[in-house]
Protein backbone atom coordinates (compact mmCIF):
# COMPACT_ATOMS: atom_id res chain seq x y z
CA UNK A 1 0.00 0.00 0.00
CA UNK A 2 1.13 3.52 -0.87
CA UNK A 3 -0.43 5.06 2.22
CA UNK A 4 -0.20 8.83 1.97
CA UNK A 5 2.40 8.73 -0.77
CA UNK A 6 1.42 9.75 -4.30
CA UNK A 7 3.68 7.07 -5.76
CA UNK A 8 5.32 3.83 -4.67
CA UNK A 9 8.63 5.14 -5.96
CA UNK A 10 8.65 8.04 -3.50
CA UNK A 11 7.63 5.76 -0.66
CA UNK A 12 10.35 3.28 -1.52
CA UNK A 13 12.98 6.03 -1.72
CA UNK A 14 11.92 7.18 1.75
CA UNK A 15 12.14 3.64 3.12
CA UNK A 16 15.87 3.39 2.49
CA UNK A 17 17.00 4.47 5.98
CA UNK A 18 14.70 1.82 7.45
CA UNK A 19 16.04 -0.80 5.05
CA UNK A 20 19.57 -0.02 6.25
CA UNK A 21 18.46 -0.61 9.83
CA UNK A 22 16.73 -3.87 8.85
CA UNK A 23 19.83 -5.14 7.12
CA UNK A 24 21.99 -4.27 10.12
CA UNK A 25 19.59 -6.12 12.35
CA UNK A 26 19.33 -9.18 10.11
CA UNK A 27 23.04 -9.62 9.51
CA UNK A 28 24.50 -8.81 12.92
CA UNK A 29 25.77 -11.46 15.31
CA UNK A 30 25.87 -11.35 19.12
CA UNK A 31 29.15 -9.38 18.99
CA UNK A 32 27.50 -6.66 16.90
CA UNK A 33 29.42 -7.62 13.79
CA UNK A 34 27.84 -7.92 10.36
CA UNK A 35 28.49 -11.47 9.25
CA UNK A 36 27.50 -14.10 6.71
CA UNK A 37 26.22 -17.54 7.40
CA UNK A 38 29.23 -19.83 7.85
CA UNK A 39 28.29 -22.12 4.99
CA UNK A 40 28.06 -19.21 2.56
CA UNK A 41 31.34 -17.73 3.82
CA UNK A 42 33.14 -21.04 3.32
CA UNK A 43 31.73 -21.46 -0.18
CA UNK A 44 32.86 -17.94 -1.11
CA UNK A 45 36.30 -18.49 0.40
CA UNK A 46 36.79 -21.66 -1.63
CA UNK A 47 36.40 -19.72 -4.87
CA UNK A 48 39.44 -18.20 -6.57
CA UNK A 49 37.27 -15.73 -8.49
CA UNK A 50 33.70 -14.48 -8.17
CA UNK A 51 31.50 -13.85 -11.20
CA UNK A 52 28.62 -11.45 -10.66
CA UNK A 53 25.74 -11.81 -13.12
CA UNK A 54 22.86 -9.33 -13.22
CA UNK A 55 20.78 -6.93 -15.33
CA UNK A 56 19.88 -3.23 -15.17
CA UNK A 57 20.08 -1.67 -11.74
CA UNK A 58 21.24 -4.94 -10.20
CA UNK A 59 24.15 -4.95 -12.68
CA UNK A 60 25.05 -1.43 -11.55
CA UNK A 61 25.02 -2.65 -7.95
CA UNK A 62 27.32 -5.47 -9.03
CA UNK A 63 29.86 -2.99 -10.40
CA UNK A 64 30.07 -1.27 -7.02
CA UNK A 65 30.10 -4.67 -5.28
CA UNK A 66 33.14 -5.70 -7.29
CA UNK A 67 35.02 -2.71 -5.88
CA UNK A 68 33.93 -3.54 -2.33
CA UNK A 69 35.03 -7.17 -2.58
CA UNK A 70 38.27 -6.56 -4.46
CA UNK A 71 39.42 -3.62 -2.33
CA UNK A 72 38.31 -4.89 1.05
CA UNK A 73 38.82 -8.65 0.73
CA UNK A 74 41.32 -8.92 -2.12
CA UNK A 75 39.30 -11.50 -4.07
CA UNK A 76 39.08 -10.99 -7.84
CA UNK A 77 35.57 -10.32 -9.16
CA UNK A 78 34.15 -10.04 -12.67
CA UNK A 79 30.78 -8.45 -13.37
CA UNK A 80 28.74 -9.46 -16.41
CA UNK A 81 25.47 -8.39 -17.95
CA UNK A 82 23.40 -11.57 -17.91
CA UNK A 83 22.05 -11.27 -21.44
CA UNK A 84 25.55 -11.10 -22.92
CA UNK A 85 27.15 -13.78 -20.80
CA UNK A 86 26.31 -16.85 -22.86
CA UNK A 87 27.55 -15.34 -26.15
CA UNK A 88 30.73 -14.20 -24.57
CA UNK A 89 31.44 -16.51 -21.67
CA UNK A 90 34.79 -15.48 -20.19
CA UNK A 91 37.48 -18.07 -19.62
CA UNK A 92 36.58 -19.22 -16.14
CA UNK A 93 39.05 -19.57 -13.32
CA UNK A 94 39.70 -22.96 -11.73
CA UNK A 95 37.27 -22.53 -8.85
CA UNK A 96 34.61 -20.00 -9.89
CA UNK A 97 31.58 -19.06 -7.81
CA UNK A 98 28.66 -17.25 -9.40
CA UNK A 99 26.76 -14.48 -7.65
CA UNK A 100 23.35 -13.65 -9.13
CA UNK A 101 22.03 -10.26 -8.07
CA UNK A 102 18.31 -9.85 -8.70
CA UNK A 103 15.71 -7.86 -6.83
CA UNK A 104 12.85 -10.03 -8.08
CA UNK A 105 14.75 -13.29 -8.40
CA UNK A 106 12.73 -13.90 -11.56
CA UNK A 107 14.74 -12.19 -14.30
CA UNK A 108 14.89 -14.56 -17.27
CA UNK A 109 18.26 -13.36 -18.58
CA UNK A 110 19.91 -14.05 -15.24
CA UNK A 111 18.12 -17.37 -14.85
CA UNK A 112 19.35 -18.53 -18.25
CA UNK A 113 22.94 -18.07 -17.05
CA UNK A 114 22.19 -19.83 -13.76
CA UNK A 115 20.81 -22.84 -15.64
CA UNK A 116 24.03 -22.92 -17.66
CA UNK A 117 26.41 -22.59 -14.69
CA UNK A 118 24.42 -25.18 -12.73
CA UNK A 119 24.90 -27.57 -15.66
CA UNK A 120 28.62 -26.91 -15.50
CA UNK A 121 28.51 -27.76 -11.81
CA UNK A 122 29.57 -24.36 -10.47
CA UNK A 123 28.33 -23.11 -7.11
CA UNK A 124 25.88 -20.21 -7.14
CA UNK A 125 24.73 -17.62 -4.64
CA UNK A 126 21.65 -15.48 -5.27
CA UNK A 127 21.32 -12.06 -3.65
CA UNK A 128 17.63 -11.23 -3.87
CA UNK A 129 14.76 -9.42 -2.29
CA UNK A 130 12.53 -12.48 -2.77
CA UNK A 131 13.81 -15.60 -1.05
CA UNK A 132 11.87 -18.49 -2.56
CA UNK A 133 12.01 -16.89 -6.02
CA UNK A 134 13.23 -18.93 -8.99
CA UNK A 135 16.82 -17.69 -8.79
CA UNK A 136 16.89 -18.28 -5.07
CA UNK A 137 15.53 -21.83 -5.38
CA UNK A 138 17.84 -22.82 -8.18
CA UNK A 139 21.05 -21.50 -6.59
CA UNK A 140 22.98 -23.23 -3.81
CA UNK A 141 22.81 -20.27 -1.44
CA UNK A 142 20.69 -17.15 -0.93
CA UNK A 143 21.33 -13.83 0.77
CA UNK A 144 18.19 -11.78 1.38
CA UNK A 145 18.00 -8.03 0.84
CA UNK A 146 15.35 -7.43 3.52
CA UNK A 147 14.13 -4.36 1.62
CA UNK A 148 10.42 -5.22 1.75
CA UNK A 149 8.33 -5.42 -1.44
CA UNK A 150 9.45 -3.06 -4.20
CA UNK A 151 6.49 -2.15 -6.38
CA UNK A 152 7.63 0.79 -8.53
CA UNK A 153 9.23 -0.34 -11.78
CA UNK A 154 12.22 1.90 -11.07
CA UNK A 155 14.37 0.10 -8.55
CA UNK A 156 15.49 2.27 -5.63
CA UNK A 157 15.59 0.65 -2.20
CA UNK A 158 16.63 -2.69 -3.69
CA UNK A 159 19.73 -1.04 -5.16
CA UNK A 160 20.92 0.42 -1.86
CA UNK A 161 20.04 -2.86 -0.11
CA UNK A 162 22.13 -4.73 -2.70
CA UNK A 163 25.06 -2.39 -2.02
CA UNK A 164 24.72 -2.88 1.74
CA UNK A 165 24.62 -6.68 1.44
CA UNK A 166 27.58 -6.66 -0.97
CA UNK A 167 29.50 -4.55 1.55
CA UNK A 168 28.68 -7.15 4.22
CA UNK A 169 29.95 -9.90 1.91
CA UNK A 170 33.18 -7.92 1.35
CA UNK A 171 33.69 -7.19 5.06
CA UNK A 172 32.97 -10.76 6.12
CA UNK A 173 35.42 -12.22 3.59
CA UNK A 174 38.05 -9.62 4.50
CA UNK A 175 37.78 -10.56 8.17
CA UNK A 176 37.93 -14.27 7.40
CA UNK A 177 41.13 -13.62 5.46
CA UNK A 178 42.59 -11.51 8.27
CA UNK A 179 42.51 -8.30 6.23
CA UNK A 180 41.95 -5.00 7.95
CA UNK A 181 39.92 -2.71 5.70
CA UNK A 182 40.05 0.10 8.20
CA UNK A 183 36.49 0.75 9.40
CA UNK A 184 33.62 -0.75 11.36
CA UNK A 185 30.97 -1.60 8.77
CA UNK A 186 28.06 -1.76 11.20
CA UNK A 187 28.84 1.70 12.54
CA UNK A 188 29.38 3.15 9.07
CA UNK A 189 26.15 1.65 7.70
CA UNK A 190 24.26 3.21 10.58
CA UNK A 191 25.78 6.56 9.61
CA UNK A 192 24.71 5.90 6.02
CA UNK A 193 21.14 5.37 7.24
CA UNK A 194 21.17 8.71 9.03
CA UNK A 195 22.65 10.43 5.97
CA UNK A 196 19.87 8.93 3.84
CA UNK A 197 17.33 10.39 6.23
CA UNK A 198 18.90 13.83 5.89
CA UNK A 199 18.74 13.61 2.09
CA UNK A 200 15.10 12.44 2.18
CA UNK A 201 14.41 15.58 4.20
CA UNK A 202 15.73 17.76 1.37
CA UNK A 203 13.07 16.94 -1.19
CA UNK A 204 12.12 20.57 -1.82
CA UNK A 205 15.66 21.40 -2.81
CA UNK A 206 15.91 18.33 -5.04
CA UNK A 207 12.59 19.14 -6.68
CA UNK A 208 13.96 22.60 -7.43
CA UNK A 209 17.06 21.08 -9.01
CA UNK A 210 14.91 18.75 -11.12
CA UNK A 211 12.82 21.68 -12.34
CA UNK A 212 15.81 23.85 -13.04
CA UNK A 213 17.84 21.29 -14.98
CA UNK A 214 15.44 18.68 -16.29
CA UNK A 215 11.94 20.07 -16.79
CA UNK A 216 12.36 20.77 -20.49
CA UNK A 217 15.66 19.26 -21.55
CA UNK A 218 15.94 16.59 -24.25
CA UNK A 219 19.05 15.01 -22.81
CA UNK A 220 21.23 14.90 -19.71
CA UNK A 221 24.65 13.58 -18.78
CA UNK A 222 25.94 12.08 -15.58
CA UNK A 223 29.65 11.92 -14.99
CA UNK A 224 31.84 10.51 -12.28
CA UNK A 225 35.20 8.91 -11.77
CA UNK A 226 36.08 5.79 -9.84
CA UNK A 227 33.01 4.45 -8.04
CA UNK A 228 31.08 7.63 -8.89
CA UNK A 229 31.20 6.44 -12.51
CA UNK A 230 29.12 3.39 -11.57
CA UNK A 231 26.65 5.56 -9.67
CA UNK A 232 26.39 7.85 -12.69
CA UNK A 233 25.32 4.84 -14.78
CA UNK A 234 22.55 4.11 -12.29
CA UNK A 235 21.54 7.80 -12.10
CA UNK A 236 21.20 7.91 -15.89
CA UNK A 237 19.17 4.68 -15.99
CA UNK A 238 16.81 6.00 -13.33
CA UNK A 239 16.24 9.24 -15.22
CA UNK A 240 15.70 7.66 -18.62
CA UNK A 241 13.34 4.92 -17.54
CA UNK A 242 10.85 7.17 -15.77
CA UNK A 243 11.22 10.59 -17.41
CA UNK A 244 12.11 9.43 -20.96
CA UNK A 245 14.91 12.00 -21.07
CA UNK A 246 17.82 10.62 -23.04
CA UNK A 247 20.44 10.24 -20.35
CA UNK A 248 23.94 8.88 -20.40
CA UNK A 249 26.30 8.09 -17.57
CA UNK A 250 29.98 7.90 -18.26
CA UNK A 251 33.44 8.14 -16.83
CA UNK A 252 34.74 11.71 -16.54
CA UNK A 253 37.94 10.80 -18.33
CA UNK A 254 36.00 9.48 -21.34
CA UNK A 255 34.46 12.88 -22.10
CA UNK A 256 37.23 13.99 -24.39
CA UNK A 257 37.09 10.70 -26.28
CA UNK A 258 33.79 11.49 -27.90
CA UNK A 259 30.87 12.45 -25.73
CA UNK A 260 31.96 16.05 -25.26
CA UNK A 261 30.85 16.62 -28.86
CA UNK A 262 27.24 16.40 -27.61
CA UNK A 263 27.56 19.23 -25.13
CA UNK A 264 25.61 22.30 -26.23
CA UNK A 265 24.46 25.50 -24.63
CA UNK A 266 22.42 24.51 -21.56
CA UNK A 267 23.01 20.73 -21.65
CA UNK A 268 22.58 19.48 -18.07
CA UNK A 269 25.63 17.66 -16.73
CA UNK A 270 25.31 16.11 -13.29
CA UNK A 271 28.81 15.56 -11.89
CA UNK A 272 29.43 13.38 -8.85
CA UNK A 273 32.31 14.21 -6.52
CA UNK A 274 32.46 11.89 -3.51
CA UNK A 275 35.95 10.42 -3.88
CA UNK A 276 38.92 12.41 -2.61
CA UNK A 277 41.40 10.75 -4.98
CA UNK A 278 39.56 12.09 -8.03
CA UNK A 279 37.98 15.25 -6.68
CA UNK A 280 40.18 17.58 -8.68
CA UNK A 281 40.05 15.59 -11.89
CA UNK A 282 36.24 15.39 -11.97
CA UNK A 283 36.13 19.13 -11.40
CA UNK A 284 38.50 19.49 -14.34
CA UNK A 285 35.91 17.65 -16.44
CA UNK A 286 33.22 20.02 -15.23
CA UNK A 287 35.33 22.97 -16.41
CA UNK A 288 35.66 21.33 -19.82
CA UNK A 289 31.89 20.97 -20.26
CA UNK A 290 31.16 24.42 -18.85
CA UNK A 291 33.53 25.90 -21.45
CA UNK A 292 31.21 24.32 -24.08
CA UNK A 293 28.08 25.80 -22.53
CA UNK A 294 26.91 22.96 -20.25
CA UNK A 295 24.73 23.63 -17.25
CA UNK A 296 26.62 21.82 -14.47
CA UNK A 297 25.05 20.35 -11.35
CA UNK A 298 27.78 19.21 -9.01
CA UNK A 299 26.78 16.81 -6.26
CA UNK A 300 29.65 16.48 -3.81
CA UNK A 301 30.32 15.00 -0.42
CA UNK A 302 30.77 17.18 2.60
CA UNK A 303 34.49 17.72 3.08
CA UNK A 304 35.14 17.61 -0.66
CA UNK A 305 32.65 20.32 -1.55
CA UNK A 306 33.66 23.54 -3.25
CA UNK A 307 32.01 26.81 -4.04
CA UNK A 308 29.17 26.52 -6.54
CA UNK A 309 28.34 22.87 -5.80
CA UNK A 310 24.59 22.38 -6.15
CA UNK A 311 23.95 19.66 -3.58
CA UNK A 312 26.13 18.52 -0.70
CA UNK A 313 25.81 14.98 0.61
CA UNK A 314 26.26 14.40 4.33
CA UNK A 315 29.63 12.87 5.07
CA UNK A 316 29.83 9.08 5.12
CA UNK A 317 32.74 6.70 4.75
CA UNK A 318 34.05 7.22 1.21
CA UNK A 319 33.91 3.52 0.37
CA UNK A 320 30.17 3.51 1.12
CA UNK A 321 29.45 6.81 -0.66
CA UNK A 322 27.42 5.17 -3.49
CA UNK A 323 24.75 4.24 -0.93
CA UNK A 324 23.99 7.90 -0.37
CA UNK A 325 25.02 9.45 -3.70
CA UNK A 326 22.22 7.62 -5.48
CA UNK A 327 19.47 9.15 -3.31
CA UNK A 328 19.52 12.67 -4.77
CA UNK A 329 19.69 11.09 -8.24
CA UNK A 330 16.61 8.94 -7.49
CA UNK A 331 14.75 11.98 -6.20
CA UNK A 332 15.78 14.23 -9.08
CA UNK A 333 14.56 11.55 -11.51
CA UNK A 334 11.31 11.23 -9.60
CA UNK A 335 10.60 14.97 -9.74
CA UNK A 336 11.70 15.25 -13.37
CA UNK A 337 9.21 12.51 -14.30
CA UNK A 338 6.51 14.11 -12.18
CA UNK A 339 6.93 17.52 -13.78
CA UNK A 340 6.96 16.01 -17.23
CA UNK A 341 3.65 14.24 -16.50
CA UNK A 342 5.08 10.76 -16.82
CA UNK A 343 3.62 7.67 -15.19
CA UNK A 344 6.24 7.41 -12.44
CA UNK A 345 5.47 3.95 -11.08
CA UNK A 346 4.64 2.31 -14.40
CA UNK A 347 6.77 3.79 -17.15
CA UNK A 348 5.87 2.92 -20.72
CA UNK A 349 7.29 -0.24 -22.31
CA UNK A 350 8.63 -1.59 -19.01
CA UNK A 351 7.65 -4.38 -16.63
CA UNK A 352 8.74 -4.78 -13.02
CA UNK A 353 10.33 -8.12 -13.64
CA UNK A 354 11.51 -9.07 -17.05
CA UNK A 355 10.61 -12.71 -17.38
CA UNK A 356 11.42 -13.10 -21.09
CA UNK A 357 14.92 -13.36 -22.54
O1 LIG B 1 14.71 -8.08 -10.56
P1 LIG B 1 16.05 -7.78 -11.11
O2 LIG B 1 16.95 -7.07 -10.15
O3 LIG B 1 16.74 -9.00 -11.68
O4 LIG B 1 15.78 -6.80 -12.33
C1 LIG B 1 16.81 -6.36 -13.15
C2 LIG B 1 16.37 -5.20 -14.01
O5 LIG B 1 15.32 -5.57 -14.86
C3 LIG B 1 15.96 -4.00 -13.17
O6 LIG B 1 16.94 -3.61 -12.27
C4 LIG B 1 15.59 -2.81 -14.06
O7 LIG B 1 16.74 -2.33 -14.69
C5 LIG B 1 14.91 -1.72 -13.22
N1 LIG B 1 13.68 -1.32 -13.84
C6 LIG B 1 15.75 -0.51 -13.02
O8 LIG B 1 15.12 0.46 -12.28
UniProtKB/TrEMBL annotation:
Entry coiled-coil feature ranges: none
GO cellular component: cytosol
The keyword Repeat belongs to this UniProt entry's keyword annotation: yes
GO terms of biological process kind: carbohydrate metabolic process; fructose 6-phosphate metabolic process; protein N-linked glycosylation; UDP-N-acetylglucosamine metabolic process
Transmembrane segments: none
Protein EC: 2.6.1.16
Compartments (UniProt record): Cytoplasm
Entry keywords, A to Z: Aminotransferase, Cytoplasm, Glutamine amidotransferase, Repeat, Transferase
Active site: residue positions: 352
Location of the SIS domain: 40-179, 209-347
One GO MF term: carbohydrate derivative binding
Catalysed reactions, semicolon-separated: D-fructose 6-phosphate + L-glutamine = D-glucosamine 6-phosphate + L-glutamate
Subunit annotation: Homodimer.
Function summary: Catalyzes the first step in hexosamine metabolism, converting fructose-6P into glucosamine-6P using glutamine as a nitrogen source.
The name this protein goes by in its record: Glutamine--fructose-6-phosphate aminotransferase [isomerizing]
Species for this entry: Gottfriedia endophytica
Gene name tied to this protein: glmS
Amino acid sequence: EKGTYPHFMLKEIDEQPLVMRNIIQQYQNENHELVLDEEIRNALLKADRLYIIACGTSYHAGLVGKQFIEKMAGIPVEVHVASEFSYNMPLLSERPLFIYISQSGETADSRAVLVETNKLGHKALTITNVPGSTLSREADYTLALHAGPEIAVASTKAYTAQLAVLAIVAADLAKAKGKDFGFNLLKELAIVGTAMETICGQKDELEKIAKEYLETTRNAFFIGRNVDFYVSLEGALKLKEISYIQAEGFAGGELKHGTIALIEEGTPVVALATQSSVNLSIRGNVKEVVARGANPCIISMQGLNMEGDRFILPKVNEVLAPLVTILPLQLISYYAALHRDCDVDKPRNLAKSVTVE
